[in-house]
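Collaborator request, handled under Task 6.
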Amino acid sequence: MTSTSRIVHSDPDILGGTPVFVGTRVPIKTLLDYLEAGDSVDEFLDHFPSVSREQAIATLELAKEMLTAYANFA
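Structure tokens returned to the collaborator:
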């Protein structure tokens, strides 16, 4: 399983503890909101250049792993 500590950071002093991409102030939820709205990962990355493609893809892979693991226990 992918290590969340290399992808996601949560600190009460940064956006009140909202999970963000490591090294940025960009909330993880923003990527999901873009995808939900039908935007591409490239569009998201164009608007948030402090997030790397590797971070965005790793976040999606982590979400997939977590949902797959959850589905196996539900």
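The cover message to the collaborator said: "The CA atoms of residues 7 and 59 lie 7 Å apart. The chain is about 50% helix and 5% strand. Please let us know whether this matches your experimental observations."
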